[in-house]
Each structure stands twice: as structure tokens, then as C-alpha cells.
Amino acid sequence: MILSLADAAKLEWDWVWALEDSRNEYGERRMIGYGPIADRVYCVVYTERKGIRRIISLRKANRREVSLYADKI
Predict the structure, then answer these.
(1) Could you say which of 8, 59, 65, 67 is the most buried, measured as most Cβ atoms within 10 Å of its Cβ?
(2) CA pair distance 49, 47, nearest whole angstrom
(3) What InterPro entries does this protein's entry cite (predicted)?
(4) DSSP string for the chain
(5) CB-CB contact of 61 with 71 (8 Å)
(6) Dist CA 49 CA 53 (whole Å)
(7) pLDDT tens string 3-12
(8) Contacts of 49 (CB under 8 A, 6+ apart)
(9) Strands 17-20 and 40-49, bridge-based pairing
(10) Cβ proximity of 35 and 15 under 8 Å
């Protein structure tokens, strides 16, 4: 399955676990989130501007991230 940023709309946002990405200074607050689309966990990077979620990237979560998500949810 090829992903586009528009696929982030399919994320079950009520089930997204997110933390702030503080690895670099981005000039805005960036979040790294993990959540399901159907039966698979995805990693989404986003920021919020004026109450609107702006998607920066979306990809399948790797095994470590899936395990982390399972531990948090």
C-alpha cells in the first residue's frame, strides 16, 4: 500500500499516542504519534497551527514502534 499524507485522515485519532519531538529545534511544536489505520499501526509526524493538525509525514510503524505503542495503549 502506497501512503499519501491524505491517508492520515484515516487514522483513528482517538487512539493515537503522541509525544513531542524535541530532537531538533523546528521553530514549532512537532509531535510524533502512533496510531491505527484499520489493523496496522502507523507513525505520523504533525504540528498543530490555529487548531488545525498539519501532517508532516506518515509511514508504517516499525516493530519497535508497534511494541512501544502496544505498551502505551
Answers:
(1) 8
(2) 7
(3) BrnT_sf, BrnT_toxin
(4) ----GGGGGGS-GGG-EEEE--SS--SS-EEEEEEEETTEEEEEEEEEETTEEEEEEEEE--HHHHHHHHHH-
(5) no
(6) 7
(7) 899 999 999 9
(8) 28
(9) unpaired
(10) yes
Please state the length of the chain: 73
**For residue range 54-69, what is the model confidence (pLDDT) as tens digits?**
999 999 999 999 999 9
Q: Where are the domains of the chain?
A: 5-72
Cα 4 to the chain's mean position, in Å?
Answer: 13
Q: Give pLDDT, residue 2.
A: 81
Query: What pLDDT is attached to residue 1?
Result: 67
